[in-house]
Amino acid sequence: MPNSLNTIRAGVLDVAYEAHGPADGQAVVLLHGFPYDVRCYDEVAPLLALRGIRVIVPYLRGYGATRFVEVSTPRSGEQAVLGMDLLALLDALGIGRAVLAGYDWGGRAACVVAALWPERVAGLVSGTGYNIQDIAASVRPEPPEAEARYWYQYYLHGERGREGLTQNRGAFARLLWRMWSPDWAFDEATFARTAASFDNPDFVEVVVHSYRHRFGLVAGDPAAADVERRLAARPSIGVPAINLHGAGDGVGPPAAVDGAAKRFTAAYERRLLDGVGHNIPQEAPRAFAEAVLALAAT
After folding, report:
1. Which of 69, 136, 151, 213 is deepest in the core (most CB within 10 A)?
2. Does pTM top 0.85 for this prediction?
3. What angle do CA 188, 67, 123 make, to 5 degrees?
4. Residue 2: pLDDT above 90?
5. E strand or H helix at 49
6. How many CB atoms lie within 10 A of CB 235?
7. CA separation for the pair 238, 115 (Å, rounded)
8. Cis, bond preceding 35 (omega within 30 deg of 0)
9. Which are the contacts of 116, defined by CB distance < 8 A and separation ≥ 6?
10. For position 103, what pLDDT does the model report?
11. How does pLDDT run across 206-230, given as a tens digit for each residue?
């Protein structure tokens, strides 16, 4: 269990986060994805704290107790704002340099900061590797099997999808958990502990914007335009990195050839995890913690 649940003003958000371990330890930030929350790190964080690591586990914008400071702030879910949120959190907590670890949306936030502000990153653990989106290329179709895996994204492009997520957010997320992690036998109590985070009043708007923006269907937050422009260049990541990829990932199955490797210019390793799906830290907490510790020790 966390040592504490805290809230801190960080940029445009009041970020709710859980803290584990000694305040003077090597800093590690663990970042969840969609549709998950901080509960995915319940077994990872204590393993790190026992090794003297200072662990910060924030709720992303639109999840749990994290809230926007101003009503006027766009409820954007684009990649640039996720990275900006993370950078603002590091600043607010006085963390000059940290190991960043995440998957899905959280992995994307970590990749953005590692690519654009590498001086703030001691190491990167990223589920599926290079998670920075190529929005310009989103108009190019993929093979039908890949397109079928992204049905939920296309569903959210229309107002029927927005209303469906609003009315059925729990059932929507539960279905994705099952599809994306076919070998993970989670129980209803485990799901319910996370599903409570989807009651955040900004959840639907942030999620819908995320899945529309990445296809160029809606404008981004003007405050993030410069960061989004820099990301469009597909910057390389020059910090030590470990790519964790579940061999049973139902939405992003690993390719035979690691296409992400070319995006990393420092020490890089890909670790395939048998019997693991998309929710890597909750399905394989020890493997996730070992990857973090490997980078924290360098």
Report:
1. 213
2. yes
3. 80
4. no
5. helix 44-49
6. 16
7. 7
8. yes
9. 83, 227, 230, 231, 235
10. 98
11. 999 999 999 999 999 999 999 999 9
